[in-house]
Amino acid sequence: MAYIADYIFDLALAELDTATATLYICSQEPTSYAGASSTYKLGTKTGLSIGAPADRTPSGRKVTVASFTDGVVDSSGTATHWAITKSGTTLMATGALASSQAVVAGNSFSLAAFDIGIPDAA
Predict the structure, then answer these.
(1) Model pTM?
(2) What is the C-alpha separation between 82 and 61, in angstroms, rounded?
(3) For 11, which DSSP code?
(4) What is the pLDDT of residues 102-121, one digit of tens each?
(5) For residues 23 and 47, what is the distance between their CA atoms, to the nearest angstrom?
(6) Selection from 98, 116, 1, 2 nearest residue 61 by Cα
(7) Which of 51, 56, 93, 122 has the smallest set of CB atoms within 10 Å of its CB?
(8) Is 85:30 a contact under the CB 8 Å cutoff?
(9) Distance CA 23, CA 42 (A)
């Protein structure tokens, strides 16, 4: 069975907090920084609060992105995914929203807390 120590996962997950600049809500799941920050971008949130790495169920490690209510909607549309980027250069993580949201430019958006995790090696 393969093994990777928790602290290796923790280093990767901690990078989400220390290097992250922006969370975007997107009209579809982006596969690049440009997709997240331009092509599919509907809204922007800076100043994320991401917790310390912790155990993930059923295995692995995770961090929790804290809920917020002050995201800014840049374009009208239906948001289906979130994307977290590093300082204007790198797409670090993406995921589906718990439920899609219709958003209108000029309004704010909110997201409930959610986890980003890495499963243990198989």
Answers:
(1) 0.93
(2) 20
(3) H
(4) 999 999 999 999 999 999 98
(5) 9
(6) 116
(7) 122
(8) no
(9) 11
Query: Mind listing the pLDDT tens digit for each residue in 52-82?
Result: 999 999 999 999 999 999 999 999 999 999 9
> What are the E-state strand segments in the chain?
20-26, 41-46, 54-55, 61-65, 68-73, 77-86, 90-103, 108-111, 114-118
- Are 26 and 35 in contact by the 8 Å Cβ rule? The answer is yes
Contact predicate 50/68, CB 8 Å: no
The token pair that represents 5 in the structure block: 């120590």
Torsion angle of the four alpha carbons 98, 76, 85, 95, in this order, in degrees rounded to the nearest 10: 20
DSSP state string for 81-100: EEEEEETTTEEEEEEEEEEE
Asked if residues 84 and 23 have their Cβ atoms less than 8 Å apart, the reply is yes
Distances (CA, A) of 18 to 51, 65, 77, 92: 11, 13, 30, 12
- Strands 20-26, 41-46: pairing is antiparallel
